């Protein structure tokens, strides 16, 4: 269990690298979680994560990052500001969940899709 939103962000990035959709679903807040499983796009290769900023205020946090990846040999980057919330899980244990994210360069809100 991730002790901070930043630790959860890093573990979710690792889950993307390892194509661990079950972990991504389990750490995604129920209010915004996609109904369908997360499946990596064919030819996707993650190259690195650069955390630009993280702020925590009580049980809410944001993490701004840039993730680099390639699809079919073409380099891309995902610049996102992710929102996180800490609340009890189904067992009553307090933990962090990913809520959603926005693209600072485009001002667009999205869920957990690349």
Automatic annotation (TrEMBL):
YchJ-like middle NTF2-like domain span: 4-101
UniProt name for this protein: YchJ-like middle NTF2-like domain-containing protein
InterPro entries the record matches: NTF2-like_dom_sf, YchJ-like_M
Organism superkingdom: Bacteria
Organism for this UniProt entry: Collimonas pratensis
